[in-house]
Amino acid sequence: MFDESRTIVKLWPYEIIGIFLLVIAAFVYQFERKEFSTKQLTLIAMLSGISAVLRIPFSNFQGIQPCTTLIICSGLVFGPIAGFFVGALTPFVSNFFLGHGPWTPLQMIGWGLPGLTAGYLGRKEINFKLIIVFAVAWGFLYGWIMNIWHFAFFVKPHTFETFVRTYVLSIGWDVSHAIGNALFMGIMGERTIRILTRYKKRFTIERI
Amino acid sequence: MNIMLELVYKRKRSIFHDASPFLKITWLVSILLISMIFEHPVILSVLFISSLFAALSSNVFKDWLSVMRLVLFFVPFVILFNMIVNANGETVLWQLPFMIPIFGILNITLEELLFSLTMCIRLAAILGAFALMNLTTDPDELLIAVTKLKLPYRSVVVSSLSTKFVPVLFSDLNNIRDAQRSRGVDFSKGGLRKRIKKYGAVFFPLLSKSLDRSVQIAEAMETRGFGRYEKRSFYKDAKLSASDILLIAVAVAPFLIALYMAFSGIGSFRFYQRIDPLIKSSSEAFFIIVMLASEIFLLPLLKLKGVMAYD
Questions:
Q1: Would you say A88 and A109 are in contact if contact means Cβ atoms under 8 Å apart?
Q2: What's the rounded Cα separation, in Å, for the pair B83 and B85?
Q3: pTM here?
Q4: DSSP letter string over B108-155?
Q5: Most CB atoms closer than 10 Å: which of A118, A182, B185, B305?
Q6: Which architecture, in CATH terms, is A9-203?
Q7: How far is B291 from chain A (nearest CA, A)?
Q8: Which value does ipTM take for this structure?
Q9: Phi then psi for B75, rounded to 5 degrees?
Q10: How many angstroms separate the CA atoms of B67 and B53, rounded?
Q11: Dihedral sign (CA B301, B303, B306, B311)
Q12: Which residues are paired to B92 by β-bridges?
């Protein structure tokens, strides 16, 4: 039963959202500091636009979404900061059509981080199977990030017990998201990376 | 799918459409912050009522309602979730007749029910304010206002470009889908794996086409001198008039009242183990009424401004 002393952490929803907004602000600062050409700016805008458009028809199917694939691929090809922004702008833009709310900052982080980490992953030569594992892992991690919001907003006594129960209940969604990611990445991933790499070769200048 | 695209800004006349974007941003942020400070069901209802009145007076009520339907969809989920996750509250309303291994006895109590409903009201208040903002504000005006607020310029440009691409990309998507359909691709058949493969027939052409388009747009921007000067110029200007500053002060007032309440300990609400009475003291009632009045007071002022500007 409820016991005040067992409250592990006093999580208020606005503190959670504030922390996530600060993280986003730090990335925005990085983005502003770095030199981007106009072509790179429109590229980031276009990729996140495509990703947002892909999300809208799939919004009814919980979890099975192609946008994580596109975000990871753009991170792999164009680097961490561009990957993060493609990911973070996806919910920001699509929520103008699906509904903005207090969950937007968390979704931005939940989709921005796969792009960011994929950017670091893409600096080395990697096996494609590893990328599929990576996509599956982010299917779960995205769900766990979103659970923080749910836990802070909709669950009242924040005890260890309710925390575990919240995470146990979300397993169904997380598994379906992970399966969706694996399928999309396995079927469409390689070709997407090829298209993006070709584009990158066409429009970037290397000084020798 | 196309219903989603209906729920965006359309050019109309109403007190909220004509209001300055700075005012609307202030109003939205004030409602957001108040809804984050309090967990009190009555205060959250007051916020919801104020965004309801604003929607009623701004000619987009039908669209606004269809956004609100989303919250109704949330309600049973939140109640079910709280029933499983929580085992708190004294007043048991209903109990599951059998035990579940990990979770133990499941029951639904009055306290859980009220907590779930209150959180849904909070969600409705936030979503309602956001929806009204979306439906009544021209994205261009919002971009200018946001740029004038000295927010990071390049990030703002990228996000607004991206938002503008969405309707164009949507019509592209539909065109490509029709083209593939006329070539014999049946999108409604097959299992999940096959469907995703067919989905690629739309996705890859869309991707290559849009990448080319993004280069064209970048070149168009460069020919117009994008990024050439430190300080940009504006095609349309967003200026603050004296009446706007007055209205912004009115929009901030509820938030100041809320801050005062929070610091003097009025308006806290406990759900567990037993719910507090809805109104605890006369001073609480007084402050809630003042907050409601100051939220609604904005609307006749906006109306007055409209009358003065166009007659």
A1: yes
A2: 6
A3: 0.79
A4: EEHHHHHHHHHHHHHHHHHHHHHHHHHHHS-HHHHHHHHHHTT--HHH
A5: A118
A6: Orthogonal Bundle (1.10)
A7: 21
A8: 0.85
A9: -50, -55
A10: 15
A11: negative
A12: B109
Report residue A89 as tokens: 């702008």
Decide if B204 and A154 are in contact by the 8 Å CB cutoff: no
Q: Please give, rounded to a whole number of angstroms, the shortest distance from the CA of B106 to a CA of chain A.
A: 12
- A1 falls in which pLDDT band (50, 70, 90)? very low
Burial of A4 (0-12, 13-18, 19+ CB in 10 A): exposed
- Residue that is written with structure tokens 């603050």 in the block: B240
Name, in order, each residue with C-beta under 8 angstroms of B41's C-beta and a sequence gap of 6 or more. Answer: B114, B117, B118, B121, B269, B278
Report the residue of chain B nearest A162, measured CA to CA.
B85
Whole-angstrom distance, CA of residue B11 vs CA of residue B137: 9
Q: How many residues does chain B have?
A: 311
> Residue ranges of the domains in chain A?
9-203
Cis peptide before A40 (omega within 30 of 0): no
Of the CA atoms within 13 Å of residue B160, those in its CB half-sphere come to 16
**How far is Cα B92 from Cα A36, in angstroms, rounded to an integer?**
60
Q: What angle do CA A29, B214, A39 make, to 5 degrees?
A: 50
Is the confidence at residue B230, as pLDDT, over 90? no
Provide the chain A residues 48-87 that lie in CB contact (below 8 A) with chain B: 48-50, 52-54, 56-57, 64, 66, 85
